[in-house]
Amino acid sequence: MNGSEKIPKSELRGLRAVATLEFSKGLLVVLVGLGLISLSRSALGVEDIAENLLYVLHINPDLRLSQVFLNVSARLGDMNLMTVALVAAAYSSLRFVEAYGLWRARVWAEWVALLSGLIYLPLEFHHLIRRPGVVAWAVLIINVVIVLYMAYLRLESRAKKIDSPVAAD
Length: 169
Known about the structure:
about 0% strand; elongated
């Protein structure tokens, strides 16, 4: 959409809701990336920090979720944390650019949201099959709604162009 078109309020609200979600995802990943950078400079290992965090928060290390957290931290200790942080920066940059474009109702941002959502659907289905749960279902449903909404906007825009008198000439 260019600046000359009047955007319906309901469409703008939908785009801004998706923009807010994408911005939030980008911000979360930035915070995780900064955390990883600070961990890479720490004298303690990632596993030690994870164990200390569970202790400080008074979380039983024998709980299933605690074990998952400790296992992930053990794997992170083996990875190059700076590489992970750089990937996080690239991902969050994409989310911020997408959020900006959606907030400003830009067509290119709708395409980015549609395509990036489609890319993640197979991964989300796979995750849901392997580890079904409320969070997995919520992530999948939210992503499907966003993909369907972006597809609807793109198809509606195309239909308007086909029906317009300028297109008929």
